[in-house]
Amino acid sequence: MSSDQALSMNSMDQAKTINQCLLILNEYEEWENYEEGGTMMHRVLQPYFALSGYKLRAEPEVANQHRFDLVGDNILKGDDRILVDYKFNREGSPRSLIPSAILEFVTNLSPSDVSRVIMVSPEGYDANMAAVSTRTAGPRLELWSFDEVKERLVRLRDSQPVEDKYVELVLDFVDKLALAIAHEELDLRRLEWREVERLVAHVLAELGYATHLTEGSNDGGRDVVVVDVQQSGTPVFNIEVKHWTSAKVGKKEVKRVLEVALRERRDGAVLWASSGAGPTAIEARSESQVDYLHFADGNKLSMACRSFARKRGGLWSGIRPFQSFILDSSD
Fold first, then answer.
1. Which residue spans traverse the membrane (predicted)?
2. Which pTM was predicted?
3. Of 39, 82, 210, 256, which shows the fewest CB atoms inside 10 Å?
4. Are both 7 and 84 inside the same structural domain?
5. At a CB cut-off of 8 Å and minimum separation 6, what does 18 contact?
6. Residue 280 — φ and ψ, nearest 5°?
7. Helices 11-26/34-51 angle, 10° precision
């Protein structure tokens, strides 16, 4: 399962996929050999991490001369990169060995590196190995058994959001805001900052992009994460929303958005400022960053709302690559 497939699933299909993973794990004693064990573990762990919000690499990665089975970056939360190593054995007891290459790799990670290693084995790892892991690698090395994987799968399945009345009312409210702006019945400047963030996330989701609205104001340089699920490679973008009614964003805001997007290995970023970007903001974006960091303003949000209204009316031309959508100055 790819990340774009996972992000496009509704909660019912996600729960079905997780139940299939649990069924595979419950039958692991029937797996015949190491090769089949590795294949079946991949069939469980790849969907789990994809559904958990990770953009998984197409090919395994070699680090410190060790080949990891899965590597991915957290699309939704950022600042989290996983390297997963799974070992299948039929010994019926916890493993008593952690490869020295993995221990060395983890202990040499710099404080600014957001990587962590997850090792998975049917019975987990014995107490001695757990103590060695804690002492030498700390929280950046996690040792999982199949029972722990099952628990995580169940938590993920049971944590799927339920469309309650509150959520229904909020979405209905944002729908009405978008339509009112599209029909020029409401001035964007009258909205509160959080309403504008919700509006950006909701309208883009309705236009076919996978979106994630971050929590509150402590978002750290991104308010909305956008995943272009229709494009090859599933590009991911950060959006920082600045709803200032008169002041324009400047150098400080550009620097922060770029810092976060580059650290999180995003494919691009958008500084969406209601009043636009000032001269210092434009100057702060270097020539090499023109195709990476884009500016959008209140007019662009009004255009997005008009596209949303046309889609609701059955007059929409279809989804475009996200970068093309942001750069296009016409409806």
1. none
2. 0.73
3. 39
4. yes
5. 47, 48, 51, 153, 154, 156, 157
6. -70, -30
7. 160
